[in-house]
Write a structure and sequence with these properties.
47% of the residues lie in helices and 19% in strands. By secondary structure, the protein is an alpha+beta fold. A three-stranded antiparallel β-sheet has the order 1-3-2, with helices on one face.
Length: 79
């Protein structure tokens, strides 16, 4: 399974407004536990369940929060 499209999909969803305040996305990745740990280490709080990472962006999330999420996804999913 290629993980780069997941990053591209999230970035595209954010940029076109599909994933915005109140929006959620669920990613199925190869190493969900490692990705979850990296996100938590970067203080990006997501849900990890059944091999998936669930991202929920709400009105209290700043642009910097979303950028930090995308930076971690880009770094971790290219491994």
């Amino acid at each position: 399974m290629s993980s780069v499209p997941s990053t591209v999909a999230v970035r595209a969803a954010v940029s076109v407004g599909i994933l915005e305040a109140g929006g959620t996305a669920e990613l199925q990745v190869v190493r969900p536990a490692e990705l979850h740990a990296a996100l938590e280490h970067a203080e990006v709080h997501v849900m990890h369940h059944a091999g998936r990472i669930r991202i929920a962006i709400h009105g209290y999330n700043a642009r910097e929060d979303v950028e930090r999420l995308l930076d971690v996804l880009k770094s971790e999913l290219r491994r």
